[in-house]
Amino acid sequence: MTSQPSVELAPQQITLEGISPRILAGLRIVGAAALVIGCALGVAWPDGIPLFFRAYLTSFCYVLGMVLGSLLLVLLLHVSRAGWGVVVRRLAEVLAGHVPLMVILFLPIVLPLLWGSSSLYEWADRHAVEHDELLRHKAPYLNPVFFTIRAAGYFLVWWLVARFFLETSAEQDSTGDPRLTNRMERASGPAILLLGLTVTFASFDWLMSLDARWTSTIYGVYYYSGAFVGAVALWILLAMGLQASGRLKEVITVEHYHDLGKLLFAAVVFWAYIAFSQYLLIWYANIPEETTWYRDRQTGAWLYVSLALVVGHLVLPFFGLLSREAKRNKAILGFWAAWLLVFHWIDVSWLAMPGLKREGSPWGPIDLCLTVSLVCFYLASVLRRAVERPLVPLRDPRLAESLAFENF
Amino acid sequence: MIEPSTSSTNGLEEPATVIAGLVAEFRTPDALKAAATKVRDAGYRLWDAHSPFPIHGMERAMGIRPTILPWLVFCAGLTGAAAALLLQWWTNTIDYPFLVSGKPFFSLPANIPIIFELMVLLSAFAAFGGVLVLNLLPEYRHPAFSVKRFARVTSDGFFISIAASDPKFDLSATRALLESAGAVAVDVCYAPAEAPRLPGVLKWGLVVAALLALIPPLWIARQRQIPSDVPRLHIIQDMDFQPRYQAQGVGRFFADRRATRPPVPHSMAVGGRQLDAHFYQGQIDGQWATTFPIPVDRETMERGRERYNIYCAPCHGLAGEGDGMTHQRAVARREPGWVQPRSLHVSNVREQPVGRLFHTITHGLNTMSGYAAQIPVADRWAIVLYVRALQRSQNAVLDDVPTALRPALLQEPTKP
């Protein structure tokens, strides 16, 4: 067994134990209140029920992207044996371990479906399926029962993967066994494969099947690349928030922010690459059954949302994050992280809403309420988990390397 | 500063050398960093630090300004993007406009992959070349290598070299500075007084080879320009010459040495043998058929109406008056030389036998082209049946109306 590097970190620096329980309670109260208001608006609004479900799905997929994107970040740090990222890995773990919460939040989507409601998915409407040959052909796959079984499968995989990596990392905190690092590295490759497959099919099921006649094989990567942007942005903001509260002061340096900034930049470019790959083929082939999806997103206010995505999700952050100085400046990096969190929400909404809401303003108070609600629930869950363990994997064999990390 | 060259000991004249600078060795990376700080503060400019591995903070210790390489890469990337955009815009809109699937000649989405690729390519070139140039590479022989101990720079030696060409260089003062900075050894390094030259044979050999290499492309260019009675030299084949047999020619593969293969016995042409003249040609014993070879019922009639409305109505009109959309548009546009499609209710069409109508649909008449390729045989007959019904509808007599409906018809007030 190798000798452990002697790393001395002040205890109040690396735990969240002192946090006031009021913050946690406040988040939950705000979340519950927003949810109640959202429900009330959904009932009161003209044709508000389908709107409510779409908005809920948007918020759900937004938060789910944070969870799964953070889980992918943990796996990427392991699979690349990243020395630099050890000091921030626990923060990604804290953001990732919320699969049970996501199961609970998924219930409002799956229970009405099993009940026979087709407010969200047209393929759940027996009458529509009977009269549409394409939907009839897809019915063996797109039906409430199989949909639920698949969803259970996805959640099971995510729960197992998250549990293994989070628990093993926590175990190392107490035992300090460096072999645990090796075990996580070995498992990370297959876990990324599993995660990629399940997220792809989950996005097919939950988002793409909103337009049940339309398909795109790159859709899963599109959703996940956007979620990755959101997860990295949230990761950066969490690190900055903890430092602003006086924690991790000596632990996370400008060098780590520089690397996080590189990741954010790469994620933005990758998202754009995937988004354009999907658009180019459909634009070029110009086949009616494929272009309908983009037609929904190029009519009415959605045209301006699409253009805003091009500018706000690619052009501005691309040039804003290009320079080394920007990535090493906490204010600039934090600004772009917050900016991209907003635009990732617009991106998810752009996936979910247009087929239903063709006219008028793209969003309304229902969207706002539900997003605030689900994000509050998620943040409360994040804080609750962050209190349980040190904010840094204290006995990771590469911790000393990570603390001394420097970019050239 | 020219040192006297070492005298020849074995009859060979060694080349004259000059002092190129000083090379100082240090024990540790930290000592090297501290010494670099001193040299920097002493105001030297033409000097360098050498170590087996990168040392964090060295660039600050040496006072190296941030590199301009990112800007070079940025500009090269923008150049690549702009060049790709310009190339595609010019070739697609100006030089050779070519319509591709109805898109505008200049359509940005189609250009983005090329823009992206050229941007990445030129950025990579700029990064690769820029690193070499900014590091003053390639350098065949650094004068420091004339100091024997300097060889350890790739294993465990840490060195600072100061060039004699630096304005602040002074042999004794610089040596004193390096020693005070903690050097364990300071050596003078030498460089040849004259820059080494390429041997004459090699130089002229390269020139001759370059000239010779020009001959083939020039000859090919000439051959492609001048008129000639022999086939041109094909450098790029473009599949112009393919091994193949000529039709009806001689082949070597089959025993009968025929290149074209005769049909296999009992094989049948596409469409089958059209033995039934009534069905396929609309004729019975050489005369136009007056009866239908398919069942005449409501189903056939509905089929005929549907097919008629698809294939015939655009010209002949839904009621067969010869006033379809095509005609109306041609009239509205005053198309010169437009001939109105035939009305199906004129007497000579009404008097034609059904076989003749079938023949017209199959092979066309005057400006109407044949519809054999679009409409299957049975459907053509169904259309004929529907045409007959249309003709009857426009030229009906009272006897055609069922007796039960006649009173209602007769009571209808007639308009003045």
Protein topology:
The complex is a heterodimer of chains A (408) and B (416).
Chain A: H1 21-44, H2 48-79, H3 86-96, H4 99-115, H5 126-130, H6 133-138, H7 144-175, H8 179-206, H9 219-244, H10 254-285, H11 288-296, H12 301-322, H13 324-327, H14 330-352, H15 365-388, H16 399-403
Helix pairs in contact in A: 1-2, 1-15, 2-3, 2-4, 2-7, 2-8, 2-9, 2-14, 2-15, 3-7, 3-9, 3-15, 4-7, 7-8, 8-9, 9-10, 9-14, 10-12, 12-14
Chain B: E1 17-26, H1 29-41, E2 47-50, H2 58-62, H3 69-95, H4 108-134, E3 158-163, H5 171-180, E4 185-192, H6 200-225, H7 277-281, E5 283-284, E6 287-288, H8 298-311, H9 313-316, H10 325-332, H11 347-350, H12 354-363, E7 364-365, E8 368-369, H13 377-394, H14 406-411
Antiparallel strand pairs in B: 1-3, 1-4, 2-3, 5-6, 7-8
Helix pairs in contact in B: 3-4, 8-13, 12-13
Describe the structure.
The complex is a heterodimer of chains A (408) and B (416). Chain A is mainly alpha-helical. Chain A has one domain (13-401). Chain A is 74% helix and 0% strand. Chain A is built from 16 helices and no strands. Residues 1-6 of chain A have low confidence and may be disordered. Chain B is α+β, with helices and mostly antiparallel strands. Chain B has 2 domains: 15-194, no CATH class; 277-392, Cytochrome Bc1 Complex, Chain D, domain 2. Chain B has helices at 29-41, 58-62, 69-95, 108-134, 171-180, 200-225, 277-281, 298-311, 313-316, 325-332, 347-350, 354-363, 377-394, 406-411, and strands at 17-26, 47-50, 158-163, 185-192, 283-284, 287-288, 364-365, 368-369. Chain B has a 4-stranded antiparallel beta sheet. In chain B, strand 7 (364-365) and strand 8 form a beta hairpin. In chain B, helix 12 (354-363) packs across helix 13 (377-394). The termini of chain B are far apart. The relative contact order of chain B is 0.09. The model of chain B is unreliable at 1-9 (pLDDT under 50). Classes of the chains: A mainly alpha (408), B alpha+beta (416). The A-B interface holds A 276, 279-280, 283-284, 286, 322-324, 406, 408 and B 54, 56-57, 70, 74, 101-103, 109-110, 112-113.
